[in-house]
Batch of 4 targets.
Target 1
Amino acid sequence: MYKKSINNLISDTKPCESYDVMSERVLKMPMADETCDKCGKCVKACSGHAIFIDEYWSIDLGKCIFCRDCYDLCKHITPITAPNYVLKREDLIFSVSKHPELINPKLSEKKTKILKRSVSIRELDTGSCNACETEINAMDNKYYDMERFGLKIVPSPRHADVLLVTGPMTKNMLVASKKTYAATPDDKLIIACGTCAISGGLFVKGDVVGEGINDTLPVDLYIIGCPPSPNRIIISMIDALGLRHK
Amino acid sequence: MIKSVDMQISDLPNELNRLFSEGYGVVCMYATEAGSMPRSIQTVLRKTDCIIHITTPLNSDEYPSMSTWMPSLLPYEREMQEMNGLIPKGLTNYGPQKIMWKYNDGYPLQKNELPKERIEVPIPGNNIIGEGVFEIPVGPVHAGIIEPGHFRFSVAGEPIIKVTAHLGFTYRGIEKLLETTILKDNTRIIERISGDTAVANSLAYAHAIEGDVEVPYRAQLLRVIFSELERIQCHFGDISGMARDTGFTVPAATCTGLREKILRLNEMIGGHRFLMGTIVPGGVRKDISDNSLKAIEKRMLKIDFDLEDLMRMLDNSTLFTDRAETTGIVTKEVAEELRALGPTARASGIKTDIRKERPYDAYKKLGMRLYTADKGDVRSRLTVKAGEIVESVSLINQCLDKMEKGELKADVKMKDGFNLGLVEAPRGELMHAVNVVNGNIWRYKIKDPSFINWLVLERALPGNIVPDFPLINKSFNLSYSGNDL
């Protein structure tokens, strides 16, 4: 009985995706072409207030929620490939004159020195909408199987090398977040995962502390997306922490 | 059909008592602030498809507590006390519900600017004292990848005597944001109330804005398809969690795989893994191609087989049965008393489902069976959820059969007055109520089914052992962010 059931269930052979297959599925971001006349319609329509116009048409990917409203609005705006992650908050601002370079920067040697080829992750929810949690849970399923890259979720911050933070840092979670940060052993990395964690997202005017978690915790890595899909969270960590070449 | 009634506060308890004895149940109770409309308590009651909306103007901050004789009103009275500063006379049982602090002279939903100074409210203990009785505080940061919430377990040895859930850690002030937002379309915020029920929330919002506008037929069918896809992925997540918490990893891993397949299907047809940005007031945002429809059909065909195998594996396992049966029992009396919602209520033998009782969109033209169980334990909730997946597949197949070309969007305009959106989310009855004054939202109230079911969970736990808590919690699968808003 079991054997038959299991055989039926595992019908697709090798569902596990390699690094290359995972990195093929990219995130698309909006970008205006050179003929954009800066009419400002998209600025008004943008729910996350990500698009702004100064010298050029510009977008702050930290605020973008990837709702795709702007594509419907204007024929000048077209999807281009977005980066998976950046290391500095100001690197998230792109414009017509500054398209994203898909170079996958590495964190400095000093920060990743303690990590060999295994990374223990503690997830910290600071008020997210549970879409990010669902995606982080999905990193464990048979398609992504993050443990083969050495990524592992641990139950306590005391065991963790990395804090994977989601959510806009609500005022109610502030104390608990600081305590979790303090409980994590030193030489820790803080990863802001998703738009809420990077900039506060849509809730920046709500009951939250500052704009994103970098007003409270020192962030080392920003993973883009709302929510970031599991393959891109894994790829970002592998690339930024240099797990492939160790 | 919504029947609106105005009533004085002195008559309200008697009238509610009469309606409850007639079989009505409270859907929501909330307060509106003074300003463009008078300060009032709004009560929404439902009996199958009859809805009564009672407006009670208030002159002072105090009103007689009704939860002392009607326990299903307790969470609403506590919430009004905290968010609107209304004091229920006679009620002593309230602690922090959503916020862990209070203002000196004000409350979070007041219309003028909020005071800056706030006082921390310490989380109260359970106050159960006796020989060998311990209190275990858990959270808000948990061992698993779940949202934040704080629990206090009073235990004597292994069995739990009492549990109190202290939530509110994900309170982001969404109701306040929706009142003050200058955006024309609030759908983006609404979708992010609770990420895995994005479709249900945006659908309830759409219904609240649309009022009586008839949505084009194709859009209605697509809405049903999106809702049911969401229900399938949500329930697969629950079943996977239940299997994992009993240490039965093979079905758990299979379930996460099946969920991933649905999420990928979502991404293919709607452009988003949680189908955010698919439903707009008036219809749906984008059409889906014939190829996508074929892909859905193909996937639905496979789900039936996969689920059958999965359930056979769970049914035949004594390991799983031992943990799941007679664990976390919600009796029918408790479920009726607290007005439990969704699969939790159906597992206790209550036949409640908005899709059946007050059909919306294309559900009017589709046939569906209501899955119920009568034991009210973890196993019953599992069978109800598995049955609902089968039913969702059947609903999607019916929609695919009936699919025809046509318009996707009707013109809608927000109407003044009270409007209601009532849908069946994966977790139960979800309500969005909106009070519109001069074309602006004056008060937007969201009631997630989790808001009620957290109380049901507190009642289900005593008598069980602490290691069973994750299993029972997973079988309810409640949303923290939907509760806190």
Target 2
Amino acid sequence: MKFIDEYRSEADTRKFVQAIQKTVTRPWTLMEICGGQTHTIIKFGIDRLLPEEITLVHGPGCPVCVTPLELIDKALAIARRPEVIFTSFGDMLRVPGSETDLLSVKAQGGDVRMVYSPLDAVKLAQKHPDREVVFFAVGFETTAPANAMAVWQARQMGLKNFSILCSHVLVPPAMEAILGSPHNLVQGFLAAGHVCAVMGYWEYEPIVEKYRVPIVVTGFEPLDLLQGIYMTVKALEEGRAELENQYVRAVTREGNVPAQKLVKQVFQVCDRQWRGIGLIPNSGYCLRPEFAEFDAAQRFEVTGITAEESPVCIAGEIMQGLKKPHQCPVFGTECTPEHPVGAPMVSAEGACAAYYQYGRK
Amino acid sequence: MCLGVPGKVVEIQENPLGMTMGKVDFSGIVKEVCLAYTPDVQVGDYVVVHVGFAISKIDEEEAHQVFEYLKEMEELAELDIDQPE
Ligand code: SF4
């Protein structure tokens, strides 16, 4: 397929690997932010092709992984209500809450439905005026324009039975949280290409300045990742802390301006809890007061949430680049995709799921 | 969830609420996609689609950049062109 196959060429892969080998002289730790990139790296064995000086650690860019437990418990409570049709992206359905997950609620009779786009949830609300349709609006900047449009459309249509349970997260504050930690190991970042397709990459300029780290906006195919790694390593070896764009075919400095505009109209920046990591200031979006009527957290009162995390799961350390999935004591034993203990074992973007799926031990 | 997939725009229409929708072909699978955020796209253009929304048009000229970069590296002899096997 065009714009996919050509970026998987083996001969070109070898050329980039060779170039990286020739450039690297000492150990470097790089982090890819996005879980989609983590999967490409593990699936194509890119980490194994690289010289041993280079360590790739896997970032927090897995929306399913960082959605706070309290909110998943809240989602479960709302989904159990008889008047509710609870809609969500497929990935969220199997994420373990404190006691159960959305699929189990569905099995017990809850009306839980998977949707491909948030607009599908709006359509459902239109079709079932006698039911309350709730959409689980999680994700990074990439998903925000879609969720903003769903809310906007619901308002245009005058829908009174549509709401979102919102847990949007933002990449730049998470990068700052990682870089600002005294335990930080990350020396260079591959920034998430599709987040930047929406937001542009000007937001990273102050981070490069402040922390003196190279950041390369990187795409999702093997050649994209290898070029991104090469550019980051070259910058590190040359002592340059610069912001560069590898993913020029889809990303501009200013990003998608119409999308940013609607996102700003519907959402505002707020503090956000990240599962496994904790509170990061100004790291999320919530609905603006003008759209409060679409806020499921306000519409449905939920009490008695305890939010108890599994004590063995080390997801937080993994997402901050301090540990790798196979260092978790229950990886592949008690924790598998069939019986996930923590969120990163569930999602198509979770690092633990990637390691498990591609047989990393 | 952040996986954007490239596909080819095969149809564009306005929906009754004034939101541009369209059909995008992903290697034979055609899906309905919201094109409101990529107002300049034409039929035949490639877009990156994420949860049913085109978030970016793929720039066909810039798409060669990776390969040009490789070529430049070869010319600068940063690579030994020992093609194994
Ligand atoms: S293997 Fe399971 S328990 Fe361990 S860190 Fe990953 S998700 Fe958590």
Target 3
Amino acid sequence: MTEIMIDEQAAERIAKGVPVVEFDHVCLGFEEHQVLKDISFKVAHGETRIILGPSGGGKSVLMKLANGLLLPDTGDVRILGWSLQQMTQRELFQMRAHVGMVFQESALFDSLNVEDNVAYRLEEEHVDPAEIHTRVVEALHFVELEKAIDKFPSELSGGMRRRVSIARAIISKPDLILYDSPTGGLDPITSNTIIELVVKQRDVSGTTSLLITHRLQDAFTMATHRYNEQLGHMEKIPNGGVDPNTRFLVLNDGQVVFDGATLELAHTSDPWLKDYIS
Amino acid sequence: MRLFSPEAYAKSIVASVQEYALLCAHAIGDLFSKPRYINDMFTQMDSIGVGSLPIVVLTGFFTGCVLALQSATSLKEFGAVNMTGRLVALSMVKELGPVLTGLMVSGRNASGMASELGSMKVSEQIDAMRALGTDPIRKLVTPRIVATVVMLFFLTIISDSCGTAGGGVVAVGMLHLNGHTFFTTAYLTLKMGDVVEGLVKPLFSGFIIATIGCYYGLKTTGGTRGVGKSTTQAVVASSVLIILMDFLVTQLMIGIFGR
């Protein structure tokens, strides 16, 4: 499968309505510990799926499966219709050009400055240097961090690192963005800034995304707010409305305990879920 | 206290050898397909080769000095002090130059590679690289192997030369031997087999240093403590393997050249 074929097929499959992410009875264990047990769900194009659950429930592992960084023991993980288990390593690397990922601790390359970090993927694709610079500035403008272009990761605060990481993930305009706890370890104000950026990306670009968060407040902010492009900031959806494209997946002890819309989660009758979201 | 299982230990060793072999095969295979990270190779050559130059020059020079002093004392008893140059040249070119250079470069670079890659692993930079569509073995391991093999070859030649020069300085300056005799006997005693033996060893040593350093770096777990552990293991393993390889190659070369 050549790179060009993968690019063409991606656009074709999105147009046909193929789910961007599809987990089909996925199980994964490490040594004797079963981390994910029979996980099945689908994420449609343009949807934002928020993954909630207690620590150690397998959320980050699920995220790595969605990018082919790990492969399941049984079951099938399909991204844009491609079964990851059937792809060669080389094809997996090409497939990842369609997936952006924001890591829990940012995972910026500490020997490269902000510009080179954000430009990394474009440089690997041998894009023209002038175009790379323009697109880096554009991505940094999106996360409101143009002034930090020459700084190194060690000179940035935790929130700024997270924003650079978002810029790095969106620069290639991916079909899917994976956010692994983008607000983890940040103070509430910085967390809000990051969530606003995620909502902005969702509403401005309509990119499909998976987002892990431990902060229920962030999850419900995403479901009940939208980005106002004219005013340039996030605002509450009027009349207590919720974003129809934002849905929830709750994991507990490696199993899916909830898969549905915001209002379904808010009005759940499951005692464990009620207790968890209260 | 948890009981030690010999079976689990044996399995872990076999699994490590398998992982190491797969890493080596993958890294060598990447040489024959695109993309190739030529710029990274030159960056590593500069870091490994030019960066190691001072320690290699100093080690080689003083090893030659000591060798001349020690051998001249023994040779004097047999009235063969004029053979000092021959002994220094043979020892440096066949054995001490390649082995000591390998060990010095191992101490400096196997540890450097293990700690650099280990830090990247524990801070998820390796995963980030994979997530950004880059094969970390192709990008990080293959350039280091090429750079170490190429540069160790030339560093060994420099070490041999410095060692012979150091021996010459001691022979002339301290032992008051004839410089012309020293260098003539040193030159005449070296045969093709000796030079080949001395230049084949760094090729293997370079491969061992880079692959062991990268292997321990990429399998690092457990935060900064894990990085420290990987660094130590990389230096120990590569040093032992260099000595083992030296023995095997020497045996092979004696079989081929008969000396």
Target 4
Amino acid sequence: MFVDGRTLADGTALEADVCIAGAGAAGMSIALDLRASGLSVIVLESGGIQRDPEIQRLSVGRMDGIDTWDLRSMRVRALGGTTGHWEGWCRPLMPQDFERREYIPNSGWPISYAELVPWYRRACETLQLGSFTWNAAARAKAMGNLLLPLGAAIDQRYYQFSPPTRFARVYGGALEKANDVRVVLHSNVTDVRLETGGTRVSSFTCRTLTGVTFNVQANRYVLALGGIENARVLLASRSQQTEGVANGHDVVGRYFMEHPHYYGSIGIVHALALDLAFYKRIPSDLKRADGTSVRVLGALGIAADVARREKLLNFSVTFQPVTAESDTGLLAATTMQRLVTRGRGEGQAAELSVRAEQSPLAESRVTLTDELDALGMRRLALNWRIAPEDDVQMRRALVILAGELAVAGIARARVPGDASRFIWRPSPGGHHMGTTRMGTDPAVSVVDANCRTHQSENLYIAGSSVFTTSGDSSPTLTIVALAHRLADTLKTRV
Amino acid sequence: MTPYRPARREFLMRALTACSAPFLVQSVQAQGRQTRPTPGAKPQRGAQVAARFLGAGGRDSVEAIGEAYLKQLGIDRTEEAILAAAAGTLQLIARSPTETAAVTALVQAVRRDFREQRSVQLDGWILARTEVELCILALLSPGGG
């Protein structure tokens, strides 16, 4: 059922077995799984059914590092969260993304890709994708398309596209009908209260923009507020501990990661008439439960063994044809076209879009400012940083990709900068990750392999803030997979 | 116009001999036997093979790449400098009995360059050393400068 928090009497105390803060992809996935489990559930949502500019202003923050999208518009404070405006890009993280790579400081999840696969499968259903199959060669063959004839150093991969699933529209009704789930709208967690001793959460203090204050008491608590807000709420909960909750080692808010995107700066020229259909966003043979076709998009990356040998972060490249004449470099694409085709036939220019992993960096972080929002909570400051070594790795990776395209006789590619500098400016992907990262060591992580905070035994965190490393894949599929896994954990532990 | 230097022929002979380019050595020797050295004399076969490899048309493009490479190397557009800078590719051409065989060898060399990371970056483009050397050799062909 839905409840409007603004209609509650001031000082109300609500009780449930599980309290979930946040009704986005993670929070709603958990709530859906906990229906009919014998557990009573309260879901707290900052917004209502529709987006409201006044509520969005609660997300305003200061940018201290690399510019990213306006936080006020990037995350949606309404039922369904950011699925209200996501584009539907889906790919799981890759096996190597979970592994410890000694050349990437602080890498290595405490869980493996294989362990997460059962929940990835369930997440595919939740996000209305096709089956959990990610073999590009098999997919292209099934679709009657060809992969580019590239060597073993290149890993061919592909995205599946969700319709995209708008959680409020697709799943809001199910939660509204559920007798054991109460979705309390217009309600913001402003303080996480701890029991004496500080090892258990005793309640969430909640406020509405109309001035109602109430609290929720539960056996288990889940923060599912997004990659930035999860950290903000923990840091802002200082009524009992000056450093905030679950932050005894000053890790909360650190290791913030984005997916640096690099658009259009690489020209590429095909020497041959190539079948590029697989590399366009086209309907595939994969079908949803309702029989509609799932769109896919082929992409290129570096093979895991080569990446390990060359000490490279993960990244994926997609491309789209452009006219060579639009390129105005010193050596324009038209010039390269003539070189590559050697005077025989037509070439084709394309722009590359690179979606990259970044190293987890302690100095890349969310902190609190002294400015207060309308609820009296301290606003955040986001200092997104990228390690200089990442630029070096990224450039080397692109040079390897360019070489492989050339070896195959397909193309020449342009990589901005030279051996001493990489001059491509990163754009954000709008993916906020890592601020309550998963790990076994409380000195460098906030939650354990079960998404439970190291310091509060009944406080769990869902969403991309638990990502130990980011990989290059869009995070939603992994967010939902981890949410389903956490729901199963909660069922067995409550 | 390429400036004439009295010591050019000696330089060419040394460069071509050093890189074992017998047909180019013969070409230059033949020129010396048959005619007075002229300011415009060029090792024609290397340039012809380069032109054939790079295909018909697009001379402006080839020149643009060649000029950019010379600029990156910091050398003037002189025969001596070009022959020295393209010594590796000249050597490959020289080992080939025919122009057709040379072109085939060059195609393989370009791929080998990329595979073995002997690449050159010009204005961001990642190119094989062999192909940029062919572009500067093409500057020596008639009409190429």
